[in-house]
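Predict structure. Chain length: 238.
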Amino acid sequence: MKKIIIPLIFVFTFIVLSQAIAKEKPRIGVLRFTNTTNAGWWGRTAGYDLQDMLIAELASMNEFRVLERKELDAVLGEQDLGASGRISKSTTTKIGNITGAKYLVAATVSAFEESTGGEGAGLSFKGIRVGGKRGKAYIAVDLKVIDVETGEIADARTVEGSSKSSGLRFGLSRGGFSGDLDRFKKTPAGKAIRACVVEMAEYLECSLVKGKNDSCMAEYDAKESKRRATTKGAIDLE
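Prediction complete.
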């Protein structure tokens, strides 16, 4: 009887451990965005603002272990202060191992277009019109997922966002606009940015959580094919 029970215990333990590993949330960090366009909304803090927006979207999904790297110095400082003996032992933060990321997300704004028109209430500021009856904007972001252990690019995708707006209505979002981007949040540009950040978060969920064999990837592959065809159609080749 013991000869039968012992192998069964090993099999059960293996199954439990396998399920636990399979359910482990991807550990992910987000780098500061970069920009290769002449977008009027891009300012000194825009790269960090977009980084924070994507972090907020990913964290709200509860599908990732999102690691905050911008505040790492503050975390280490708090641990060091606790170890110095100057803080009550009952509230001291213990020095421990900082959780490492499995993946780092790098993003570059590679295309941006905006056009506004129509009559009605509106405001022009440094060549950018806020309001009016009609407005639209388009943004494309080149997304790279880097495997920290190997340094290889585990995934790459161009994600797009666009908006067509009438008036200044703007829906609720998980991560609010801040810094340089705050004054653009109700514009077509702001709405396109928000749409693109949400699309990025949903794509990362599809790629890193659901898996590339999930049906969601077929939808993104179709979008990618359409984007490539549109891009090629806009170029006159001799």
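Summary: The first helix runs from residue 2 to 22.
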